[in-house]
């Protein structure tokens, strides 16, 4: 009877128990099984067809039924055991819950005790650290007070010593002491509201001011100004000799008083150069009519020599404006005098043998620091060259008339006239002279002079000496020479006249090529901003014609 009741209970339980897919999946994961009876989607018909796939297999139906009944009986036994075992679960669970609650209460009490002890420890630590912080602050303040008092003692004693040494003019000792006092005073900037500190600061400033005034007065007394502004250019050597002596005397007596990085010797020399340039400019403006070429070149030579001496002695670190570098000169064609090396030549005429060699700007940072004042007066040099070139052209004309035209059968016959080469050699010397004196407007003025006498050479030496024919009493021109005439109108020339015509043509060709190279050389020498003003196209056209 009990088995039947349990079987009925199981059937009722199965009829009302419907598990969700999630629960079913969890059961399959916990208790995996390959038995078709354990599947949620069990189909009895498919299961029977699996057991009895054919009619012949029905012969074993009794064995299959017995196996199933045996399995059912075993499941019933398992279910019965589980159901009977659950009768005491409620009482055991309540007892376990009570034990857990008691354990939790004990644990809570222990946690509370630990928390109370932690709070007491934290309070104790705070009290200890508060005392340590107070002691640390006291130590820091005490250290600051001691340091400040030491600085104050040093400052007060240093100010007293500084004032005493200033009165005694002990500049060597003052130099080190003043720097130390200033450094100590920096620590008291935040204490300037205290009257005593402010008073010490004012005493230091007063001592600095007094030192500056006193040192300047001592230097003015040590460097007498008498003789530093000599009157005229012929005495210019005295200016430079005077500053040389003064610089030597300064370095011996006062050189060690100033830091080496101040470059005091160079600063004195630069200031002298500025004053000299201004004074020379004033003197030359006042006595401009007395300036002669030889005197001007002498003054420029001595001045540029002095600038070169400064470049050897000093670095130029105190200068604010250093002239820019000129671009390097390019080589020229070897058919003209402008190819030859210039630095080693003796430029100028015999009377200009002492021409100054002005150091190039990139090599000398002091270039022009004094000699710049001579540029406004270089017109004297330009006018001199105008006069010299005029005399040279007149000499060429006189020599041509005296010597006569080149003769046929001689080396000179049909060759370039010697005067042409002489003219361009002189041009080159003038150009080098002027570029050493200035690369500005004086070079433009010299170019104008060159243009003038190139045209005069073309007219007076070349066109003016073409032979005259019987049919052209007005003189022969290249155009009329090249015209083809018929009969008796054909121009007749002697062999010597034909030789002269060939010489003039050769000379004109040489002048054309050399004038072009002269223009290129002038553009190299002049300042870049003035290059566009160098143009010898008109003169080249004259020789071409």
UniProtKB/TrEMBL annotation:
Q: Where is the Vps53 N-terminal domain?
A: 41-226, 228-400
Which intervals of the chain are annotated as region Disordered?
Answer: 321-363
Q: Report the domain of life of the source organism.
A: Eukaryota
Gene Ontology CC terms, in alphabetical order: cytosol; GARP complex
Presence of the UniProt keyword Nucleotide-binding in the record: no
Report keywords, A-Z.
Coiled coil
- Output compositional bias ranges, type Basic and acidic residues: 348-361
Coiled-coil intervals: 111-138
What the entry lists under InterPro entries is as follows: Vps53 (IPR039766), Vps53_N (IPR007234)
Which example biological process does GO assign this protein?
Answer: retrograde transport, endosome to Golgi
Task: Please state what the protein is called.
Answer: Vps53 N-terminal domain-containing protein
Q: Which organism is it from?
A: Echeneis naucrates
């Amino acid at each position: 009877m009990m088995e039947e009741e349990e079987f009925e209970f199981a059937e009722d339980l199965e009829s009302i128990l419907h598990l969700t897919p999630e629960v079913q999946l969890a059961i399959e994961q916990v208790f995996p099984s390959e038995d078709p009876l354990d599947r949620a989607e069990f189909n009895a018909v498919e299961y029977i067809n699996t057991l009895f796939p054919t009619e012949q297999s029905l012969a074993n139906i009794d064995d299959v039924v017995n196996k199933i009944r045996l399995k059912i009986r075993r499941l019933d036994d398992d279910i019965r055991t589980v159901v009977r075992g659950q009768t005491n679960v409620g009482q055991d669970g309540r007892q376990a819950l009570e034990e857990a609650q008691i354990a939790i209460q004990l644990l809570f009490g222990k946690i509370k005790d630990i928390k109370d002890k932690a709070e007491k420890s934290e309070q104790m630590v705070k009290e200890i650290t508060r005392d340590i912080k107070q002691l640390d602050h006291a130590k820091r303040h005490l250290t600051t007070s001691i340091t400040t008092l030491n600085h104050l003692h040093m400052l007060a004693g240093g100010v007293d010593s500084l004032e005493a040494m200033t009165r005694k003019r002990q500049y060597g000792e003052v130099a080190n002491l003043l720097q130390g006092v200033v450094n100590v005073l920096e620590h008291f900037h935040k204490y300037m509201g205290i009257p005593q500190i402010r008073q010490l600061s004012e005493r230091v400033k007063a001592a600095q001011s007094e030192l500056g005034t006193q040192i300047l007065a001592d230097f003015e007394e040590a460097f007498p100004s008498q003789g530093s502004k000599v009157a005229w250019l012929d005495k210019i050597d005295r200016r430079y000799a005077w500053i040389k002596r003064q610089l030597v005397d300064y370095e011996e007596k006062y050189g060690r008083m100033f830091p080496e990085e101040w470059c005091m010797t160079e600063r004195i020399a630069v200031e002298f150069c500025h004053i000299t340039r201004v004074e020379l400019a004033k003197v030359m403006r006042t006595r401009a009519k007395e300036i002669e070429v030889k005197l001007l070149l002498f003054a420029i030579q001595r001045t540029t020599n002095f600038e070169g001496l400064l470049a050897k002695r000093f670095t130029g670190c105190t200068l604010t404006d250093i002239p820019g570098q000129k671009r390097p000169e390019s080589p020229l064609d070897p058919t003209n005098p402008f190819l030859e090396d210039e630095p080693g030549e003796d430029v100028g005429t015999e009377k200009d043998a002492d021409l100054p060699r002005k150091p190039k700007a990139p090599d000398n940072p002091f270039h022009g620091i004094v000699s710049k004042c001579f540029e406004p007066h270089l017109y004297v040099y330009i006018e001199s060259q105008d006069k010299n070139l005029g005399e040279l052209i007149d000499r060429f004309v006189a020599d041509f008339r005296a010597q006569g035209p080149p003769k046929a059968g001689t080396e000179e016959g049909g060759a370039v006239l010697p005067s042409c080469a002489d003219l361009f050699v002189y041009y080159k010397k003038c150009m080098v002279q002027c570029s050493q004196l200035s690369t500005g407007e004086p070079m433009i003025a010299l170019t104008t002079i060159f243009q003038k006498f190139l045209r005069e050479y073309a007219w007076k030496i070349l066109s003016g000496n073409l032979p005259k024919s019987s049919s052209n009493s007005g003189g022969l021109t290249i155009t009329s020479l090249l015209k083809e005439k018929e009969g008796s109108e054909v121009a007749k020339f002697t062999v010597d006249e034909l030789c002269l015509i060939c010489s003039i043509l050769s000379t004109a060709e040489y002048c054309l090529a050399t004038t072009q190279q002269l223009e290129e050389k002038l553009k190299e020498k002049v300042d870049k901003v003035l290059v566009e003003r160098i143009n010898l196209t008109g003169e080249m056209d004259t020789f071409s014609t």
